Amino acid sequence: MFELYWNAFATVLLPQNILAICLGGLWGLLAGALPGISTSMGIVLLLSFTYSLSPITAFCLLCAAYCGGITGGSITSILFGIPGEPSAIPTTIEGYALAKQGRAAYALWLFIICSIGGGIFSVFVMMAATPVMANFALRFGPPEFFALVVLGLSVVSGLSGGSVVKGFLACFFGLFLATVGTDGITGGERFTFGTTILLGGINFVTAMVGLLAVSEILAEAEEPFQEYKSSVRYKGLRDELPKLRDYTKHWFLLIRSAVLGTIVGSLPGGGATIASFLAYGDASRSTKHPETIGHGSEEGLMAAETANNAATGGSMTILLALGLPGGNATAMLIAAFMIHGMQPGPMLYASRPDIIYGIFVAMLMSNVFLLGLTIMSINLFLQLNRVPYTAFSAAIMILCVIGAFGLNNSMDDLYIMFAFGIIGYVMRKYKIPIAPAVLGLVLGDLAELSLRRSLLLSLGDPMILISRPISLILLLGALVSVLWPLFKKPKMLEGSENA
Amino acid sequence: MMKKGEIVLSAVCLAFFSFMFYEALELRGVGRFGEVGSGFWPLLSLGVTTILSLIWLITNLRQYSREKGNAAGEPPAPEAIVEAWRRRRKIALCSVCLLAYIILTPWIGFILSTILFILSFVLALEEKRKWVLIISPLLITAVIIVVFAKFITIPLPRGAGVFAEFSRFFY
What we know:
The complex is a heterodimer.
Chain A: H1 2-12, H2 15-33, H3 39-50, H4 55-80, H5 89-137, H6 142-153, H7 156-159, H8 164-177, E1 181-182, E2 189-190, H9 204-222, H10 244-248, H11 251-266, H12 272-286, H13 298-322, H14 328-339, H15 346-351, H16 353-381, H17 389-408, H18 412-429, H19 435-457, H20 464-467, H21 469-488, H22 492-498
Helix pairs in contact in A: 1-16, 2-3, 2-4, 2-16, 3-4, 3-9, 3-14, 3-17, 4-5, 4-13, 4-14, 4-16, 5-11, 5-13, 5-16, 6-19, 6-21, 8-19, 9-17, 9-18, 11-12, 11-13, 12-13, 17-18
Chain B: H1 4-24, H2 40-70, H3 78-108, H4 110-124, H5 130-151, H6 162-168
Helix pairs in contact in B: 1-2, 3-4, 4-5
């Protein structure tokens, strides 16, 4: 294992990989900071740059963008009161309040150190947990894989944003899309309507570029660009340097938030937003100064920032060990694996440990470098009001086109991207969540093949799915995951009707 | 307030998924002995989407009729109608620009189509600043060509005939 780490450090610390981490981190910070660009969209747009890169350099770029995206959302929250990412909303409440009190530099320092600390903590947890989980998952056969995918899909109720009917509709739509093309077992055509364009199936990356990026630009085009006007006094980070005691006096809260963030991030459908809100809620309940909550609470800010960055390591753990994406951003990382001819999961851990350990080190280095990158880029973000958003949108659209085209050098993919862009826009317009469709599309193929292989093994007896203990436990977990929100919030179904 | 568009969308979803379900029925029985075959999974996913679309449509219709009964009958303000129309036009123009870009690129090449696309796209977004209109198409296209055609060597379309000759000057 030490040899693997040694080799991974030697590879990741090569100049081209360090450059990739710096560029990816900066792009992630920018994508996270701009309200029109989400972290997942930032990763989508980077995919086209990775086609000619080696796998490790590509993952250095993408991991840094992922960590940077989660971090960047908080810079504009503190300086402008505009959350770049939903996970930065608690930071907007507390950080912007602190900034308005003339303590912007202090709020930025709290955010930077806690974010990076939370990120590094979760990377160490990822390093420890991934091998254990992957080795356990190596025992899985087709029934267990099917149950695992069902568990992954069962989080739809959590991703539905209050509309369970629409969430499941989107999920099953994604599962249907995954069946288009040539059947992996019989070789027969499905839903191709005699065309060659759909023979190879709907390319996952092309569909994602359309659903996540093109649709987002179209949706943003509808609204006037949010103006960055700061009403806070900020002269520079040297304005108010924090003391070590500012962090150590909240050591228990910080550890709690980091653990909470990592655990929530590792749950399929969890992620940075839920993690930051849970940690913020925990800080609000445990603080000795409840009157400060909502008015510039240090504890609220520190807890939320620690937890949302800690979620990145948790999400990466289940992605690398089990091949399950927790959300859009990690789903896009699956696309990156596919571009380089790999499928994340226990088999990859067994066959290409160099890649897995390389990603561990890339995540660690991304967090370390983000400390400097964030400090350096704050002044850059103060110039965001000068960005001509119209030209920026056009440039992003061209990156989408190149991303979709560069995969197979085919113009047909661009028509598919366009179609999914329109579908994604309509979904956004009518509040149909996109994340479940992404999940269905990513996991659909594996779910179908695992089920059919299971039934081939049992000569058509479906009891094989519940007669094996691991499979049974996973399926029960999926059942609880689906039913729990329905019993917990019985009005969710009504919400779907009203949405 | 329930949007009429949502009722139309749920009806379109129902029609689409029902049609695909009907298509999937032909896949029944395709497969090896002892396995569920090619049609099982599509029938399952399309069956569920059809049922969910039906539920969505019914709830939309119920909510619409309920709201219609309770509505105070205040028509939307003219400014709101104009604003909604302006937004729709913006989205339509942006979509047309993108589609035209995709169609034109194989014919006139990546460079010219990209310059035209950026110009038309920023105009569709109601950009009026002259420096953005003049500089951004040229600057963005130049950066994209250097990065993707020269550095990453993606074989971007060169176009046909005289346009291909033009593109060869650059990549």
